[in-house]
Request: fold
Amino acid sequence: MIALDPDSPVPPFEQARAQLAERIRSGDLAAGSRLPTVRRLAEDLGLAVNTVARTYRELEAEGLVETRGRAGTVVAWSPDEGERRLQQAAADFAERARALGVAPADARRAVDRALGTG
Reply:
């Protein structure tokens, strides 16, 4: 499921978070899929329970997973949901840019800079 590189300068929680996020966004882990318990994943990866708990908290903050108490942690994101959120974020940005009086071309340049493409 997850392969950690002990020689990597990237902290283990971030390696785990990035790999799980990629599997969720790619559809490899579909919405509704149940993730291993924090204790189970910690044991499997040889990590502290708190490290895995942080990984799950970060994924939850991104909206990728949802923790349901005793029911466990499940994937909450799907490609359709991702597209919906992207469209909503774009609409929110456009509304804010208009309210600030920003010209459309300037708003597009700001997005390009934020994405690192301009």
In short: Strands lie at 65-67, 73-75.
